[in-house]
Amino acid sequence: MSHSILDLIGNTPLVESKVLNKNPNVKLYFKLEGHNPGGSVKDRAAYNMIKNGLERGDFNKNSKLIEATSGNTGIALAMIAGIYGLDIELVMSENSTIERVQTMKAYGATVTLTPADVGIEGARDYAEAKVKNEGYVMINQFSNDDNWKAHYHSTGPEIWKDTDEKITHFVSAMGTTGTIMGTSTFLKEKNKNIQIVGVQPTDNSSIPGIRKWPKEYLPKIFDAKKVDQTIEVSQEEAKQMAIRLAKEEGIFSGMSSGGAAAAALRLAETLESGVIVSIVCDRGDRYLSSDLFD
């Protein structure tokens, strides 16, 4: 029995691709992070960042917290801040889906929308100005070591255990890069030959949750040495794979998960044998007002 909603974070299911993977010598597993209580992989990092920040005294119940987000981290932070009785403002682009905005508000957060044409970078600039000028405290997922350490202590060990220590390739979309950094660090300690594959968008593709950052905005937690290979996917490829995941595998997710799955399937075609784990980072229901499933 769980005593708190926080006890339900992590230990998400790993399910095998039964339709999309056509290579009989490769096992492809999807890790279903939408089973976290806040609906995404970001619950892990948000919980770790808030819990440890409070314990260190980085902020307290009188602090005004702020964070820029593309969506999932914001939802997770709103949920966990609410549980701890913290005041948080979440900043994101005005072209974010209404489901994301309403979910953050339901958890009690203040939501500020910045112009779409400045993207997540503009949201980050807005948040940093509030820290500088109005005394806000930023969680700062992009440079907070508690982000990647959440995955070092949970996501990585779960994958290692649930594949019976047989994983050969780990595939993850790269946004803040916390998931891939922490999971890579753990898995490489267990077996340095495990290949870590990061997924990025092709030029001019817009995929929520997957980024190619301009140099000045590159997350400080990112270490290129922890990624063995990068696979680029297009916006259309990510969208079509999200649709196929739902229709053919019964896995309802967002576009970044479709991008990771597309990369994992491309990888599977090139291998003589292997065990691949691909992160399905959230659920598809927070994209229903977008054109993803049209």
From TrEMBL:
<feature type="binding site">
    <location>
        <begin position="175"/>
        <end position="179"/>
    </location>
    <ligand>
        <name>pyridoxal 5'-phosphate</name>
    </ligand>
</feature>
<keyword id="KW-0663">Pyridoxal phosphate</keyword>
<dbReference type="InterPro" id="IPR005856">
    <property type="entry name" value="Cys_synth"/>
</dbReference>
<dbReference type="InterPro" id="IPR050214">
    <property type="entry name" value="Cys_Synth/Cystath_Beta-Synth"/>
</dbReference>
<dbReference type="InterPro" id="IPR036052">
    <property type="entry name" value="TrpB-like_PALP_sf"/>
</dbReference>
<keyword id="KW-0808">Transferase</keyword>
<dbReference type="InterPro" id="IPR005858">
    <property type="entry name" value="CysM"/>
</dbReference>
<dbReference type="GO" id="GO:0004124">
    <property type="term" value="F:cysteine synthase activity"/>
</dbReference>
<feature type="binding site">
    <location>
        <position position="72"/>
    </location>
    <ligand>
        <name>pyridoxal 5'-phosphate</name>
    </ligand>
</feature>
<dbReference type="GO" id="GO:0006535">
    <property type="term" value="P:cysteine biosynthetic process from serine"/>
</dbReference>
<feature type="modified residue" description="N6-(pyridoxal phosphate)lysine">
    <location>
        <position position="42"/>
    </location>
</feature>
<dbReference type="InterPro" id="IPR001926">
    <property type="entry name" value="TrpB-like_PALP"/>
</dbReference>
<comment type="pathway">
    <text>Amino-acid biosynthesis; L-cysteine biosynthesis; L-cysteine from L-serine: step 2/2.</text>
</comment>
<feature type="domain" description="Tryptophan synthase beta chain-like PALP">
    <location>
        <begin position="6"/>
        <end position="282"/>
    </location>
</feature>
<comment type="similarity">
    <text>Belongs to the cysteine synthase/cystathionine beta-synthase family.</text>
</comment>
<keyword id="KW-0028">Amino-acid biosynthesis</keyword>
<dbReference type="InterPro" id="IPR001216">
    <property type="entry name" value="P-phosphate_BS"/>
</dbReference>
<keyword id="KW-0198">Cysteine biosynthesis</keyword>
<dbReference type="Pfam" id="PF00291">
    <property type="entry name" value="PALP"/>
</dbReference>
<protein>
    <recommendedName>
        <fullName>Cysteine synthase</fullName>
        <ecNumber>2.5.1.47</ecNumber>
    </recommendedName>
</protein>
<feature type="binding site">
    <location>
        <position position="256"/>
    </location>
    <ligand>
        <name>pyridoxal 5'-phosphate</name>
    </ligand>
</feature>
